[in-house]
Specification:
Elements lengths: L4 E5 L5 H16 L3 E3 L1 H4 L3 H10 L4 H23 L2 E5 L7 H12 L4 E4 L13 H4 L6 E2 L5 H8 L6 H13 L9 H11 L1
Parallel strand pairs: 1-2, 1-3, 3-4, 4-5
Amino acid sequence: MKIRKVYIASPLYSSKEQQENCEIDEVLRGAGYNTFLPQRDGFAYAYLFKQVQNEGYAYEEARDIALGIIMHLDVYQVCEGCDATVLNLSRCNPGEGTITESALCFRSEGPLVLYKGNNPSFALEHHSPLLTGQTRFQIVGKVGSIPKKLKQLEHMDESNYVRTMNIARKLFKDYDPRNKSIGALASLGKKHF
């Protein structure tokens, strides 16, 4: 699958985070990718909410409309509008929206890159395997390495979601939570991981 457009998933809470997002965007565009950068291509809630209110909607209606527009735009871009997602984990708390975008990409079988940047606290064993496992526990440490990782993902035989589900079925088809055979699970795990 040829990756042409990349969604940049990241918190937007601070100017530092937005600056890092722009650096990722610049590297991806320099490598020939189109991007969807939410802070540039999406909507800021406060602005959108006021604009919807200016259209004559009451507070609660305007709130619901603005939130719905943002949610549906982001879901569309992650699941269909873009070919891959880069998840920026360079901050200690990536935020619930960022993690949701990662899960959407994983479940829709899109290529996903986890980028840790200069986050010294990022270590695989300190983060949920439900997040890091979405990329087979592979994390990119330098922004300049993201395009190379995307090129590698273009040649995957199966999505990480399909691979994960195939392994999960083999490991847990006959799983009995009352009799957790760690030895058998570890043996199978070594074979698949």
